Amino acid sequence: MRIALFVTCVNDTLFPGTGRAVVTLLERLGHTVEFPQEQTCCAQMHFNTGYRPESLPLVERFARVFAGYDAIVTPSASCAAMIRHNHPVIAAQLGGAALRDAVAAVVPAVHELTEFLVDVLGVTDVGAAFPHRVTYHPTCHSLRGVQLEDRPLRLLRAVKGIELVELPGADSCCGFGGTFALKNADTSTTMLADKMSRVLGTGAEVLCAADNSCLMHIGGGLDRLNSGVRIMHLAEILATTEGAP
Amino acid sequence: MSRGSGGGLDANDGRVWLGTPAFPEAARTALADTQLRHNLRHATTTIRAKRLDATGEVPHWEELREAGAAIKRRTARHLDHYLEQLERSVTEAGGTVHWAGDAAEANRIVARLVTATGAREVVKVKSMATQEIGLNEALGAAGITAYETDLAELIVQLGEDRPSHILVPAIHRNRAEIRDVFAARMGDWGRAAPQDLDDDPKALAEAARLHLREKFLTAEVAISGANFAAADTGTVAVVESEGNGRMCLTLPRTLITVMGIEKVVPRFADLEVFLQLLPRSSTGERMNPYTSLWTGVTPGDGPQDFHLVLLDNGRTDVLKDTVGRQTLACIRCSACLNVCPVYERTGGHAYGSVYPGPIGAVLTPQLVGVDKAPSLPFASTLCGACYDACPVKIDIPEVLVHLRARVVEADRDRRALPTPEALAMAAASAVLDSPTLLGIAQRAAAAGGRLTTRGGRIRRLPGPLRRWSATRDTPPPARETFRTWWRENRERR
Ligand code: SF4
What we know:
heterodimer, A: alpha/beta, four-stranded parallel β-sheet, 8 strands, B: alpha/beta, six-stranded parallel β-sheet, 22 helices, globular, binds iron/sulfur cluster
């Protein structure tokens, strides 16, 4: 199986540790990962903010760069949702027949990381060990965009030594919403405050999720409070073993 | 007494309250109102739980949703056909049908009909369509007083307030506030509230009942909206929970119904689907306490004169937009409001429209034109909770993003120079379309990030990103991006 990693622009620039964790994890499970160097971004910011023509070249690039792989794995539920639901829309509206075909060919190969582990590789115990108190926030795109359901929790429960605590009101939005956080900064902050108080209430040391963008928002608020709660992408927990904490 | 961004009752083009600030500013007032936030959180949390129970106990809920969506899709595709059929059925049953192209025409028709009866007062069943066209104000200008009889609508009317929720227009008010409104204002409109009125819900309901009874027994004309109208039989349906609507629909001699043209359903039998979907989604009940159905007029029973005003007011334009048209399937259950995390924080007034919440954010800009309500399609995080809850499966996030594109396009057409946002988006697109440029940008950002961090975090960002860093720290861009790491550690291996 030829596996490509779509690391996403945010992870590439701000959270390279997440990409490294995915590589470590998949290699540990016996797979070879490729990283197509020409990849950049899924165009989510452009599309969701209303800039459709600007999103077109990025959609074309994605379809071109990732053509021919059996699986395209990404540690971002929101980018997976963007590609799955909106690349076909952009191709249909602004692209020609060739782009529509290219997008249609590449989209089915795209998997969010936990989907890939559970559905394609058929594993829930990835041999991780992480002896910490952890709470999991199902981001809106994990929950409703790609419908990860309990896959992340099944993977987390199998981690050795982990103390997994439930996050109350887990399914309510953290208030990030991409450019929403700028355009409606006050409302976004109010939603963030509610989410943070729930996270703090769990007494967890680590907050994890399948999306670094939402974690950047919640973690940014937690850091401003000097709360001591760390954010980690799910992949980083799954990549950690007893030997390499 | 008006709250938040409500403002006065005058400046009004019917659907968007002109003079209302854009959503982000309007929301700020609500966010700072502790009492309002408390009232909203309490109300939405309670009703969310009830709705989940009520929908969860129906084994075929998803099929029912799909059936509702399918009926609405079919209706939208052949709307002209079903409306003509409805006109024939209503006429055959002894009613009169009027067509209104816009708000002004609808208001003129209703005012003329009321004036012809000689009445100076009308009782009203709660209706979104008449709010949309500003009917009460128009009747007032014609010397006719309209009395709202729905309890929550009465609270709003007496308080000279704005409705802030589709189903519970006074959701932003608590009991103590309602008591104060009743005590202060009921006397001006009719029977005054008792001297010793307290904020016990029973006492409040009793005061409203006595106040309203007078109106029911004297009114000659009633005005209602419609939840549904069946094209095949000409039957109109109104569902409600207090019974006030039923009084209006049966006691007066003349009944005038103002109905958006999208409310028609093909067959009487279709009501079976919607009368299950609506109450469970809206109030979390299995059935509406009062479901009133009437077909034309029946000699010696109920209103003897029935008029149905079919209101377009922008709807046929919405119909032309293949993505946006699904909005017309809305059955005004308000489930999307109750699950919306943005609505829960800001309340309905911030939307500056009679249709608040997620449905308002998509319906209002379409009815009035995106240029008149450009902030509304952005008043959402696209979390998708509304789509999940909608009983007729309106993909609200899809429509929001579609309308955002229309806002941006309208902006491009209007301006000689691109906005700073458009410039930034174009620049980002160019950078992201080139791994080389992206690499340069990443290195520049990492260098800049290292200069401004404190304790390893960025505390203040420049330009428009300031609004982000007002409340959040940001990790500095990595010294070694992923792609650099890959080149050093995998390509070279
Ligand atoms: S959009 Fe859907 S959920 Fe919202 S009020 Fe309309 S029918 Fe109900």
